[in-house]
Amino acid sequence: MALALVHFLVGASLLLLLTAPLALRFGTVRRYQLWLILAGGLWGLVPDVHYVAPVLDRTLESLHDSRWADPFAFHYTLDQPALTGMTLELIVGSILLFLVAITVFTAAGSRNGSATDSRGTQFVAAIVCVALAALIAGAALGVGLYATNRLESVATLYGRESARAGVMLLLAWSIVTGAAIAAIIALADETMRATDPVAGISVGMLVAVVGWLFGIVVALPLWMQRFFELSRPFPYLHWQSLIGLLAFGFVFGCCYSLLRRLLRPITAGQTEVQASSSTQ
Predict the structure, then answer these.
(1) Could you say which DSSP state residue 148 is in?
(2) Average pLDDT over residues 23-34
């Protein structure tokens, strides 16, 4: 059986995607985004109601174990033995699907935004852009680590050994680092635009260099010695990691800025050309 979190995220994602055309046609629909997420999540969990139902629990359980559960966000399919053994993959996949759905819904709704509620839209868009750009940049870095058989080395930083643990840790690190890059861009808003790829790439690569100097060169050997009694030379000049971090900073900065440009709200009466020129 798939985790309840997976069923919730899949249901919420599908409902957001289904209502995205309404958000595109009627901008006010996006005000109910949180309610749509909640409703979609509960929709995906309906077949599991037999766990808490005071009556008819046997009948509801038989519904859960039949294909009649698939109309509820593919609940039956997600509970098949072929997938239940891939818990980690299901969680990551459902999170990615949810981020895509949020992006599509936010992009659709922001096209009909008003000046009054554009701030809230921009805030949601910024969070979505950070998450998606971090996943893209993290995936690019992960491919490089996988090609060089170094995913396990990421896991060893936290006392783990498997490549799967390395992927999860890389994902978490990507989101945290991406949020830091986005925060720096936001704080320097008067001198750079979040929608400018040059600004995003510059900040991303600067953070990569600073992170390498303090995180890899200085902190890593101390961390490994203190918690795992593994010796590393000090300072630890690991040039391959610098290349990887620079690649991450470049990809994240570029993707984040382009996504912010894609999801920027257009207020009523403003054309696409005017919105584009206002961000230059």
Answers:
(1) T
(2) 77
The residues near 249 (Cβ < 8 Å, ≥ 6 apart) are 137, 181, 201, 203, 204, 205, 206, 207, 208
What is the DSSP code string of 231-252? ---SS---HHHHHHHHHHHHHH
Three-state DSSP state, 110: helix
d(CA 72, CA 57): 18
Question: What's the full length of the chain, in residues?
Answer: 280
pLDDT at 185 over 90: no
**Does residue 155 come out as left (phi exceeding 0), alpha (psi in the -120 to 50 range) or beta?**
alpha
In this predicted structure, what is the pLDDT of residue 277? 47
| 60 in Cβ contact with 49 (< 8 Å) | yes
Q: How far apart are CA 280 and CA 265, in angstroms?
A: 15
> Tokens representing 234?
């000090």
Q: 80-88 — which CB contacts under 8 Å span 24+ positions?
A: 83/2, 84/1, 84/2, 87/2, 87/3, 88/164, 88/168
Q: What is the mean pLDDT of the chain?
A: 77
